[in-house]
Amino acid sequence: MSHVKAGGTSKNNRDSQGQRLGVKLFGGQKVNVGQVIVRQVGLNKRAGEGTMLSRNFTIHATKDGIVTFKSRKVRLFSGRSVRRTEVTVQ
Prior knowledge:
Number of strands: 8
Shape: elongated
Largest sheet: 4 strands, antiparallel
CATH superfamily: RNA polymerase II/Efflux pump adaptor protein, barrel-sandwich hybrid domain
Distance between the termini: 77 Å
Strand order of the largest sheet: 1-3-6-5
CATH architecture: Beta Barrel
Strand content: 35-45%
Number of helices: 0
CATH class: Mainly Beta
Structural class: mainly beta
C-alpha cells in the first residue's frame, strides 16, 4: 500500500496573456506613417490631427512628424464635459 495520498489536480493554473496595451511613442518622439502610437481598450485618448483611430481603438500616425499630447475638454452624451487627452502628429 502507498504511504502518500494521491495528489489532486490544480484548479488555478489558467491565466490569459497580457495584451501589451499602452502608449508606444511618447510626446516629442519621431513617428512614421502607419506606426502605432497608442494601444488602448475604449476611447481613453482621442485621435487628433495627423492620426487615425482603427477598429480596436488603436491610434496610428497618418503622416511623418513628431507626436504631441494635449488635454482638451470633450462633451459627453449626458452633457457633462470631461478632460481627455488628444494625440496629434505635427
